[in-house]
Amino acid sequence: MSEEAGSAAPALCRLQLAIELRGLREAKGLTAAAVAKRLVVSPSKINRLEAAENGIVEPADVMALCDIYGADAEHRDTLVGYATVTKTRRDWWQKRELAPVISPGFKAYLGQEAVAAAVNNFENEFIPGLLQTEAYVRALPLPTQELSPAEVDKLVDVRMTRQAALHRDDSPLKLTAIINESVLRRRVGNAAVMREQLGHIAELATSLPNVRIQVVPFSLGA
């Protein structure tokens, strides 16, 4: 496996595979249906691969596609390396123990967020999830009636783990957060929770060049 593939997250590997496999196919002038016929698979399988929809990509499938597309040995090794990552490593949100606290829809969103270069977020009710402190999360009206204390802890961990994208050494996520003034004034928890939360927002806005926070003041009216 190449060093480039080995250090990448599974979600990024799936996306890179999708982009490059589609590019190779189009460079050959082949349709997905024609490739599927040669592999004796359904066209939907090729479409899923090119849309990064498969959680696991079989290295054997990638090798077969590279043979059809005439990819050179170095390119094929890189793409097979990406596929191997999807088989041997899991994205953090795919862990079985987190299944009770991550809905399928949110799991799909996390997959998109993990490979995104930038996120634009508007909030009218609460602090954006990527900017929340742990104390603020715990003070929110979580679905505690349906979750055990241990599962609530896992839900909090999920929200905190997402924020690592803002601090990546390589290409940190660019966040533009537009917040209604009411979000900053609405108390969640007690005064200490809000003091810490507002201080956290101020610190991120001044210390991380990839984070931009704007507030829509009441004075603007409707």
Describe what you observe in this structure.
There is one protein chain. This protein has helices spanning 3-6, 10-27, 32-39, 43-50, 59-69, 73-88, 104-115, 134-139, 149-162, 181-185, 191-207, and strands at 118-123, 174-180, 211-216. With 222 residues, the protein is mainly alpha-helical. The chain has 2 domains: 3-88, Orthogonal Bundle (434 Repressor (Amino-terminal Domain)); 104-220, no CATH class. It has a 3-stranded parallel sheet. It is elongated, with a radius of gyration of 21 Å. Residues 1-7 have low confidence and may be disordered.
How much helix is in the residues?
A: 40-55%
- The secondary-structure class comes to mainly alpha
Shape: elongated
Overall average residue pLDDT: 89
User: How would you write the strand order of the largest sheet?
Assistant: 1-2-3
Report how far the terminal alpha carbons are from each other. 56 Å
Largest sheet: 3 strands, parallel
H/E element order: HHHHHHHEHHEHHE
Number of domains: 2
Q: Which regions contain 5 or more consecutive residues with pLDDT less than 50?
A: 1-7
**How would you describe the oligomerization state of the chains in this entry?**
single chain
Number of helices: 11
Strand content: 5-15%
Task: Please compute the radius of gyration using only Cα atoms.
Answer: 21 Å
Give the tally of β-strands: 3
Task: Write a brief structural summary.
This protein has 222 residues and is mainly alpha-helical. The protein is built from 11 helices and 3 strands; from the N terminus they run αααααααβααβααβ. The protein folds into 2 domains: 3-88, Orthogonal Bundle (434 Repressor (Amino-terminal Domain)); 104-220, no CATH class.
